[in-house]
Amino acid sequence: MYKIIGCAAAIVLAASAAEAQTVAPPAWMNTMLSPDTRADLLQAKLTRDEQLTLVHGYVGLYEPNRFHAPISAEMRAALPQSAGYVPGIVRLGIPPLNESDASLGVANGGHMRPGDQATALPSSLLTAATWNPDLAYAGGAMIGAEARAKGFNVLLAGGLDLAREPRDGRTFEYSGEDPWLAGVMVGEAIKGIQSQHIISTTKHFAMNDQETARTVVSADISDAAMRESDLLAFEIAIERGDPGAVMCAYNRINNVYACENDYLLDTVLKKDWGYKGFVLSDWGAVHSTADAANHGLDQESANGVDSEDFFGAPLKDALADGSVPETRLADMVHRILRTMFALGLFDDPLVRAPINIEADGDVAQRDAEEGIVLLKNEGDLLPLDPHKRQSIAVIGGYADRGVYSGGGSSQVIPIGNEPAQEILIGGAMVWSNGEEWQIPKQVVVLDPPAPLDAIKQEAPRARVSYDDGDDIASATALARRSDIAIVFVHQWMREGVDVSSLSLYGGQDELVDAVAKANRNTIVVLETGGPVLMPWLDKVPAAIEAFYPGNRGAVALTRILFGEVDPSGRLPITFPLGDSQLPHPIITGQNPVGYTIATVGAPTAYDVIYTEGAKIGYKWFEDQKIEPLFPFGFGLSYTSFTFDGLVASGGHTITASFEVKNTGKRDGKETAELYAAPPGGLKRLIGFVKVDLKPGESQHVTLTADPRLLAGFDAEAQLWRVPAGEYAVTLGGSVADNAAAATVRVEAGTLKP
Ligand code: BGC
Q1: Is the pLDDT of residue 181 over 90?
Q2: For residue 242, is pLDDT > 70?
Q3: Which side of the chain, N or C, has fewer Cβ within a 10 Å radius?
């Protein structure tokens, strides 16, 4: 008699001791065969109903569940109570897919598994700010291992929508505004996750660039511009990370929903990019059976959140009446099974285990230490001396409890969380259109440890005092009697809601102003999801962008403040001077209704017309000839660097060699950023490398551009075309820093997408 051991595919004879003997494993368990062959062998054994089972997932979040289809008690017991669940086929040893969010750690965000804690990585935007692909990989491998240990074999990670709209409430879950930087970093994170033999997604495919009315808006953009921007980022990440699944988005693209968008899913993803994995839907993003199935959706993720059950009985009916061809179901199942084989879900089944809190925390800390960006440091106020007897005022930002984290499905309940680390914010908010809107109270999770404690530990001889900043008079009184004042300000972002402005809310600008007036050694620490405005910048000598720095964020920040670590983060996103500098000074359609997370009964559909096309972030600023507050790629260090000996050559692409030297007195890491502008075009990032240098040390570097970064997309011919001509190449520590320059001739060329 066969008995399946756990969810694994190992099949043994186990009825009695006498009977117990191993039998030959089924043919599809032969690891010498390709994933495609193994999938074919297994698929041939599946009944129609079993095939339908594999393409139909259930939401795992809600208790009691709102399932449209009845589920067995066995299945209910198996639901891991996280994001989603696709039943396996026990008879054949096909494991279920246990899905958890997301890119910043195993999301256990309060809806489920009370008491569970996981290591919170810094925000993905911070990881992008490291410009260090190894750290993205290491973070991915760490959260992948935690996911495995907690019983998940799918991590709904790989968030990659470009920061075309920096007020997007999920800016912190994404990797900034540049397709090359974001694509490389997310690709590496995916690779890290999948090194743990689980599936990672990349999401939300595509153009889910604002949260306002995300379930109904149509992102309207030309084919060429989309290929050169948002899609290019996905293309790069998919090539590099080869995610097992791609999650189609909530929104429509040029009026067709992403999860039934033939152009996006079939033409671009599966045909042009040759993608072999499967497409799963975002939770509530399916709107049809035949249209979705015929246009590229392979698995409905979330029965229970979608407005109807689309891939259960309705798909069976559609197959019966021929509106969905049999070959399509076969393709869906093949894609799912071959991915499960390719990534080791059969050969390396899940084993629950405790997580390694210390080692995982170290990974998060290294990430934070390289991603926190020093924005200003007049008179070398920083680093502070950890041995000095001095008084330090720590003000605001709940710095006595932890550091900010972003909200929504990616929310990780961090290691060391306790009720004191969760605060409620809410109340009246004035939208940019002048209307007032009462925000329901929301839980904000503060990741421990507290900056206040970390500072006390780092500087044992200092007298460190805290003021919550609520009463400006008391905060300034403390600042006045202290040698140093460190003010913590924050911008909370969450999924489902865009911030209406990049301004800091709740009187924080006034607080900084007042503290700066009271103490000329004022350092501002920003814990923000994305860029914010800093009207007080001229009045403070030092500012540090800490983003959401994760579970060991306070330790990383403190080590930077006191000089144990050289700040080496560089901005992966432009910081504007005001909302009016953005391509859309007000988020299209934003009004109080935009606040609601609408999945069912959504507000009226409307279009967001992206007239700026591929000119996102720094490209927009150059095009408009406007100066931002801080340019893309910017960040200071405690040491100094030079870029010398630039030699650039052309031809089919651009290759540049140069030397980066640490000319200062401290160890430090610099990111060399290489940009090129095609004839008559705008600068684009075409390569980068981060180097770690001792004082006086230098390193020779050669970078070669991916030719797509030089090209434009010819939508009519469906080809990349590299224009011939003289390209202006610049090298430096930001898009605005032309430390070295050259001109090279590039030959005309075409590339297949
Ligand atoms: C989010 C996805 C997430 C899913 C499951 C959706 O609301 O957009 O990013 O993976 O929920 O939690």
Answers
A1: yes
A2: yes
A3: N
Q: Which CATH number does the domain housing residue 724 bear?
A: 2.60.40.10
Same domain? For 148 and 58 the reply is: yes
Q: For residue 550, give both structure tokens.
A: 């994760």
Question: Which residue lies with its CA nearest to atom 4 of ligand 1?
Answer: 283
What pLDDT does 75 receive? 60
Q: Are 575 and 529 in contact (CB under 8 A)?
A: no
Beta strand pairing call for 218-220 and 252-253: parallel
- Nearest atom within ligand 1 for CA of residue 208: 8
CA distances from 153 to 82, 199, 332, 441 (A): 12, 6, 19, 33
- 714 lies in the same domain as 666: yes
Strands (E), 520-580: 522-528, 542-545
Q: Same domain, yes or no, for 277 and 374?
A: no
Report the number of distinct structural domains present in the chain: 3
User: Ligand 1 pocket, 409 CB below 6 A?
Assistant: yes
How many angstroms is it from 705 CA to the middle of ligand 1? 34
pLDDT at 436 over 80: no
Report DSSP letters for 161-174, one per residue.
Answer: ---SSTT-TTGGGS
Residue 203 in contact with ligand 1 by CB distance below 6 A: yes
Summarize the confidence of residues 268-295 as an average pLDDT: 97
Per-residue pLDDT of 12-45, as tens digits, reads: 333 444 444 578 999 999 999 999 999 999 999 9
What are the tokens at 36? 């495609």
Identify the residue whose C-alpha is closest to ligand 1 atom 5. 83
Q: Is the CB of 282 under 6 A from ligand 1?
A: yes
Last residue of a domain, one of 342, 377, 411: 342
Angle at 299 between CA 297 and CA 300, to 5 degrees: 95
Same domain, 207 and 80: yes
C-alpha closest to that of 105 among 553, 532, 525: 553
CATH code of the domain in which 315 resides? 3.20.20.300
Residue 102 alpha carbon, nearest atom of ligand 1: 10
Does 179 reside within a domain?
yes
Whole-angstrom distance between the N-terminal and C-terminal Cα of the chain? Answer: 52
Torsion of Cα atoms, 719 then 182 then 596 then 61, to 10° = 110
CATH of the domain at 396: 3.40.50.1700
Q: Are residues 646 and 551 in the same domain?
A: no
Instruction: Identify whether residues 432 and 523 lie together within a single domain.
Output: yes
- 391 and 243 in one domain? no
Q: Could you tell me if residue 583 is inside a domain?
A: no
Closest among 382, 414, 366, 361 to 130, alpha carbons compared: 366
d(CA 729, CA 705): 11
Q: Which of 574, 590, 619 is the last residue of a domain?
A: 574
- Shared domain for 391 and 531, answered yes or no, is yes
Ligand 1 pocket member 233 (CB < 6 A): no
- At 403, list the tokens: 């550091």
For helices 133-149 and 179-194, give the axis angle rounded to 10 degrees: 40
Instruction: State which ligand 1 atom lies nearest to the alpha carbon of 302.
Output: 5
Whether omega for the bond prior to residue 102 falls within 30 degrees of 0, making it cis, is: yes
Band (72; pLDDT cuts 50, 70, 90): low
In a domain, 728, yes or no: yes
Domain that includes residue 378, residue range: 369-574
Is residue 9 a part of any domain in this protein? no
Q: Check the CA dihedral 705-707-713-718 and report its sign.
A: negative
pLDDT-wise least confident of 420-424, 573-577, 593-597, 698-702: 593-597
The predicted model scores a pTM of 0.94
d(CA 110, CA 102): 14
Task: Report, as residue numbers or ranges, the catalytic residues.
Answer: 282
Beta strand pairing call for 749-751 and 719-722: antiparallel
Burial class (CB in 10 A: 0-12, 13-18, 19+), 580: exposed
Q: Is 156 in the pocket of ligand 1 (CB under 6 A)?
A: yes
DSSP state of 268: I
